[in-house]
Amino acid sequence: MSAVHRPLDPEAVAPPGVDRRSFVGYVLGGTTLVAAADLALGAEPAAAVPTVPQPAELYDLNDLLTDAARPTANLIRIELHEDGTASFALPRSENGQGVTTSTAMLIAEELDLPLDKVRVTLADARPELLFNQLTGGSNTTISTYTPVRVAAAVARGALLDAAAVLLGDEVAKLVAKGGIVQGPSGTASYGDLARAAASRTDRTVRVRLKDPSRFRVVGTGQGRVDARDAVTGRKTFATDLQVDGALPTMVCRAPTLNGEPRRLRNEAEVLALPGVTDVAVLPFGVAVRAETFGQCIDAVRAMKVDWRDGPVAGMSDDDVVRELRRAQLPLPALPNTPLSRTVETDVLCYFRSNSAMDTNSAIADVREDRAEIWSALKSPIAAQQRIAEVLGLPQDRVDVHVVQGGGSFGRRLFFDGALEAAQVSRAMGKPVKLMWHRADDARVGRGHPMCTSRVRAVVVGKKVVAFQQSHTSIETDYRHGLGELITATAASLPTGLGNLGFAETIFALTQEVPYDFGVVTQTLTETDDRFNTGSMRNIYSPDVRAAGELTVDKIATVVKEDPYEFRRRHLRDERTRAVLEKVAEVGDWGRAMPAGTAQGIAIHKEYKGASACLVELDCRDVQTGRDIRDGVGGPRVTRVTFAVDVGLPVNPRGLEAQMQGGIMDGIALALTSSMHLRDGHFLEASWDNYFYTRQWNVPPEVEVIVMPPTTGVPGGAGEAGVAASFAAVACAYARATGRSPSYFPVNHRDPVEFSVKPYVPPVPPSPVNGLKKIV
Amino acid sequence: MPKQTFRLNGRTVTVDVHPDVRVLWVLRDLLGVTGPKYGCGINVCKACTSHVNGRGFNPCAVRVGDLAADDEVTTIEGLAGTVDEDLHPMQQAWLDRDVAQCGYCQPGQIMAAVALVRKVRREQREIEDADLDSIRNICRCGTYVRIREAIEQGARAMA
Ligand code: FES
Ligand code: FES
């Protein structure tokens, strides 16, 4: 099978005479300069699809997300102000991934304005954008790269025109730099020109984008634009906002997952508690509003509620495992010759939580005829539609403000907090600031579904002739707008894909086996929609890749080759091979390691980029025997070398941070973090139950290498660090212990290291001994 | 309603609130001081870490009634004021290393870092790997590596 590459340089495929950097933009009417561009600009039409390569190689999730934007084109606008700053409301959501910074960099670049003069905020829900206001699939920079630059270039052009009039010089003789226009007759600042450059009417202009070889900002490492706010405590999240009358509000939830309240037996008693103002019984629980969240917690704990059991009452991990095993489709028959050898992998990945530090939260002010919502939302239009529907209001009577989120990891594709807040505000007739308790966010919040990933490969001599992977999962919920987007785009999907369900489509568009392994198939089967799931950071890829790379190591053993050399020889893609070679070289692949420790190496290809990870893992008693209070030590990753090629790194510094975060996720997925379902509810109710990577698990040495630009267009970054890291740790564990793991995380079946918090009341008491625990 | 008095970021504050309410909510919900974040409410995640009389503490686990009128509470908002600068050296180190991602845990991380440096200084030693390993603050964005680097830099710059 031959690899099919996308052209490396988009300009190289332009028909002769067509200028690939020339675009149409707009100057819009206004009192100061407003420049605009179509958000659907610059999306490369996807390549035609031959039959042999896997779909994701030719047309991946990002093509779908970008294509979905095309028919619903709309304008994004950059405004110039008299203080010399430019502002832009990004129709995406920022949860720490750094898109406000990278977008500000694109504007600063094309507008020739210092970075600190560019202000990027988050746009309210703009229903006219339809599918084009969804933050997911690491698609933000891929889809906004061209339109943002075009709008900035339009602004620059209009400023130069205005300066020519003001200074009496020809445009050709003017130079714009650092927010100042210089000409033979004098200078004018952008602030001076903001009004003069304004247009009374809308007009269309053609602009030419900067040649990437002249980039001064893009490609340089920049600190986050909101870093100072973050370190001084000024950065505000939903629960930090002060909205008139929006008092703290919390919900008392059922002792079984998704159970429903029948009635509150002691309403008067709860209402009489200090600070409490309102109580309301809703389908998802009993809400209480009070002067402080502390008093909400006390009230939730005081509630006596009759509950109706949730749909998985009585079920435990093993029941779900049995269900998954039953749903597994038989692997297709493989060529069977006397000389062939079969290599098999079968791994089970338990439920994992995508709970962020900032729990599900939202402010809602619902009145008779309108509603206003503030929340961190990655699909604000879907949120707006659904909230309008539930409240019985026209969609345009629901204002949805997108607030910065404290982490997402897929969680904020949904709007559970916002929807609940709207319902509570309606029921109480008052504004509310609703916040989920950590215990609920961990136990009831969405997570990554339990799944199995089976791989079978056939080796003849030294050649892999077939590689098949069958992934079986509890249903992943995509009912947050991505579903509608796929429906809307289905007609334009490559042959056959349009007929698949949402989940299968996502799977087919994200997964590929980048090795030359003969006949390759990857399939997905999903079952059971009773759990609260969603696409956790990098969706299927970490699990699929871990199972795949463990198999690659096994094949290498069978053919008696070094795992690195074997991968290198079989990779079909040059960029993936380059990152693999990079980590092997920088991370000293093959160096002698003491018994009980090992290196592991793995690759991943997705989001129009490639990554590779080399880890060293210590499984000796010195690490596993560590006594950590209320925590899990276990094997420790002692060194990580990670290389990533995203095509064009807009902000290498931000990218490095993203990769470091992905590495921490990968370590947790392999070694420590999972949810235990027991008797209809998850056990984990706190960060000392759910063991995401902590400082005592952090590798002492982490090196991230950002590869120089390869394609000239940016790929996705928000999730790219996870899959290769998880897979590399899994492979290192197998090599260090001599046992290829059959489930993840590897500690899931150990006795739980914490005492399980009660389910009634659903939230733990607030401690009082804090002054005795002073550091 | 009983009045609760304590010192906050250099000023004396008096709040009308039940003495049982935890300090975190007095700060956030009543005084609008939102630098200390909620991440668990049970002294686990350390997102609310602040200082009382210069030592690290978690206001989600302290009743406001248990604070004395002369107890000095410092939140991230008041940290720079303790050194009479725009930024405390630890905040500067955080900027230099570009530590924050979403930033939600970072006020707590910085306050915990300053408390940790002061603690090892009291023990007349310098920060070691084991001290860094002992930090319990969660960062779900996984900024741990840069946190470690920033603490070492910030410690060097702390008088
Ligand atoms: S909120 Fe105080 S320690 Fe988590
Ligand atoms: S920076 Fe997001 S939780 Fe730490």
TrEMBL record, chain A:
GO molecular function: oxidoreductase activity
Protein name: Isoquinoline 1-oxidoreductase, beta subunit
Domain Aldehyde oxidase/xanthine dehydrogenase a/b hammerhead: 232-311
SMART domains cross-referenced by the UniProt entry: Ald_Xan_dh_C
Matching Pfam families: MoCoBD_1 (PF02738), MoCoBD_2 (PF20256)
Automatic annotation (TrEMBL), chain B:
Signal peptide: none
Official protein name in the record: Isoquinoline 1-oxidoreductase, alpha subunit
SUPFAM superfamilies: 2Fe-2S ferredoxin-like (SSF54292), CO dehydrogenase ISP C-domain like (SSF47741)
A Pfam family of this chain: Fer2
GO molecular function: 2 iron, 2 sulfur cluster binding; metal ion binding; oxidoreductase activity, acting on the aldehyde or oxo group of donors
